[in-house]
User: Fold this.
Amino acid sequence: GEPTGPLVKTAIPGPRSLAMLSEMKKIQISDAVQLFADYSKSIGNYLYDVDGNILLDVYTQISSIPLGYNHPELLDVLQDKENIRTFINRPALGVFPGENYPQRVQNSLLRIAPKGHTEVTTMACGSCSNENAYKAIFVWYRRKQRGDKSYTPEEETSCVMNQLPGVSDLTLLSFKGAFHGRTFGTLITTHTKPVHKLDIPTKDWPIGTFPRYKYPLEEFVRENEEEDRRCLAEVEELFDRYNKRGKTVAGVVIEPIQSEGGDHHASPAFFQELQRIAKKNGAALLIDEVQTGGGTTGEFWCHDHFNLDHPVDIVTYSKKMLIGGYFSLPEFRPREGYRIFNTWMGEPSKVILLEKVVEIIKRDKLIENVRVTGDVLLNGLKDFGKRYPNVVKNVRGRGTFCAFDCVSMAKRDQLVEQLKVEGIQSGGAGPVAVRLRPSLVFQPHHASIFLDRLEKALKKM
Amino acid sequence: GEPTGPLVKTAIPGPRSLAMLSEMKKIQISDAVQLFADYSKSIGNYLYDVDGNILLDVYTQISSIPLGYNHPELLDVLQDKENIRTFINRPALGVFPGENYPQRVQNSLLRIAPKGHTEVTTMACGSCSNENAYKAIFVWYRRKQRGDKSYTPEEETSCVMNQLPGVSDLTLLSFKGAFHGRTFGTLITTHTKPVHKLDIPTKDWPIGTFPRYKYPLEEFVRENEEEDRRCLAEVEELFDRYNKRGKTVAGVVIEPIQSEGGDHHASPAFFQELQRIAKKNGAALLIDEVQTGGGTTGEFWCHDHFNLDHPVDIVTYSKKMLIGGYFSLPEFRPREGYRIFNTWMGEPSKVILLEKVVEIIKRDKLIENVRVTGDVLLNGLKDFGKRYPNVVKNVRGRGTFCAFDCVSMAKRDQLVEQLKVEGIQSGGAGPVAVRLRPSLVFQPHHASIFLDRLEKALKKM
Ligand code: FES
Assistant:
């Protein structure tokens, strides 16, 4: 079982982590390594490192561990002799799926499909989920333009050489501060930090402004509504401008909460209106739930909070879902095989694990746990916002997906370090935010330990 | 153990496969599905389907099964209680690697590093391997241009908005018929079939001609040398043309054998001279060994056959290697963390499996097995080329990585179907080729069974 609390014995990284790090540096750049973990000992919400430190983990591998470490029922999945075979016989899933694979997809992904969705395509990570969803949008858009006509011979020969009319000049509209991945297509729509983008050839696609609210929300209702209006007007203007230039906007790509960019929220009204603008322009709306999906916001999908007029055209997922992929409305299904394809198309062993994860989320009412724990967390943070107003600013969150800002990047980094000294593994987001991304089994008593340690850290700032 | 030979009881796909396929079609496009496999029963070189058919598999999940199905020693890896934990605690590997991870990379990937290589970056599939290798090339090239100067504030702000000078106009030179992946960056360099590229916005990067040889090679020495010269002159011309237009060519991307494009080979002399041209132009050479790597050509890396002057700058891998990634010379290591990064950065559980795969390849001398078996296979095919010249054309191969052409796509597809009736799972490549991609445990007696069944199929054509 879990320990009763964190335990810090050494500096972090400690001497054993440092020794392994120096080995790692011989092999590859390792500047992002924070510590070497002991995944045999790590349990539940506690991350053990190789120096015997025990950290309460509110970051969970960049939000990708749904049920904490070494969940006994996930270990049991690998005790099953039949299941084990799935882990060593990875198929080309789009060509030779295994027995009952459709049933397994029903029991896992489709069991938690977003509202209005009955179709799902599996991929292996967040980047290829978005890359392929982008492709599905372009294919859908051009099919609408072409009507029932087939490709011309000229289109077929020109596309192979990257030439019009076979390839297109279509674009996707993304937002400042957005993060959708680091592969070339997704990178065009990612606008967080220079380190992701410097030197890489990209393309000129429209970039809107994601609202930046003033907090606390209840004090700045008028200002924030005005911010929504300003950002939405800009989106309309970008549609006009790019469509006129022949760089037709085929879709809008957006996170329900800008996560890597610094946990920026936008109102349900903003998303409702954005969906209307996309529809009016014949463009698809893609909501990227790679970081927000899986229950951590107190709904299985964050956009469930938005009360949208229509189902979202495409919803991408990964991280806590263990694999990647996207849900899409039937009209986004390509008409030909191999339009959306790759060798592995996800991985059945992850679907087996996800099947169990979904079962546990439902059975143990973990979404409700997130709501209850999220209240403890957010109220605690709001209280700190009042008592330590020079360190804790703009407290915000949905479920346990919470964040606050520091006055500067230096102060934020200092706080994240100090939290580690107090036994808390957290993480930054954007230039000045601290983000919380605990697992779904993070309970109110964990939140209390976290708040207690956070206060200790705040007192030392 | 393995059965003594194939056994076909039903049409393929059989009734149970068809029933599952109709379930699958409700969920997603499934036009590429050939059959539903029984991965519990599949063993060694034999793929069992859900209808009780047993196929000798010379395609191995698009060349991605190194040791055949259900290798007992890989199953044993999952009997180990410590190992199992690695399968359910997937870390953000670039931030929180597990205990002894550098040692595991030494025992697996670095144990089979290409000549001159001591550094490796892990990724999760062939596409992100190439995407990130491309990024490493652009970063390296711009650093050479910048010298020791850091980025300007203008570069930092402009890149986030996809604008020069922060992003670049650099290009990579690829080849007609090349396949490097289907994500946006790799798709720019993929030139196989329209179905991969139609409607997707790409970029105008230089595209050279990969040699197309006349067979048998010994009869067309002069013609094929002339073909090499023509293609290499075109590469030089493309460098000049694109560099002059400000679309500077930062690197050349090439497969050692164009695989998806139809198993096109080029001579060692061609690759040697290509490396010289790249060096002369200050451009990197990336050899994409995603399909050719892992021993299947009779060397661990196909480019080992080429006797190059220098180590290759970057070598990408995936498929048989179970994970993806790239080996790169030290100068391609970025100077800042997070330049090459994503949440998962590969997967330690795959590295554990790969460690065992590499151990078995060495211990069981499987590369030598590939050479011996490859001789049986290639000689048999060459014999058919003489005896069935209207069906089996242009026989070629290295190791068991063999192929031949049919007179048309229709005839090729017909032969692949007929082979299935005879109990052989093979696959097409490009417009008219049949490709063989058996596992590394495919032995001479398997090759004999294959040749026997192929001849039966040929007689019915
Ligand atoms: S791009 Fe997603 S796993 Fe490679």
Observations:
- The pocket of FE2/S2 (inorganic) cluster is lined by residues A 124-125, 127-128, 183; B 124-125, 127-128, 183 (CB under 6 Å).
